[in-house]
Amino acid sequence: MTKIFEYKFKIYYEDTDAGGVVYYANYLKFIERARSEMINSLGFSNTILKEKFNLFFIVKYCNIIYRKSAKLDDELIIFSSIVSLSKTSLVMNQDVKRGDELIASAEVCVVAVDLKGKPNKIPDELKNLF
Prior knowledge:
The chain is an alpha+beta fold. The chain has a single domain (4-127), classed as Roll (Thiol Ester Dehydrase, Chain A), CATH 3.10.129. Helices cover 22% and strands 40% of the residues. β4 and β5 form a beta hairpin. The radius of gyration is 15 Å and the shape is elongated. The model has no long low-confidence stretch (mean pLDDT 93).
């Protein structure tokens, strides 16, 4: 479980507050996009998971530490790696960096659930790719 997925993006005006600094809650959107892109890079998508496997992932918890401020026009990379994997959930570390500088780090646990919101087994074909 040491594969690291990268998601690169740029900070736009809409991501910032009046001072040109990224608004703290936007980091949650950024790391969510990185998780979706990780799934896409494995040949799946949230739509495929829903239609083929009757599941989607929901966040059980997210612990985030803000270390530096990202600003307008910064180019950032989110490095996502899976720390642990169970039948129905996974825990990830997601580091947001500007070059070599750590901006924020998050530990996120997501749970696979069916369309009624009940825990559902992560498909082996996806689990094996992690």
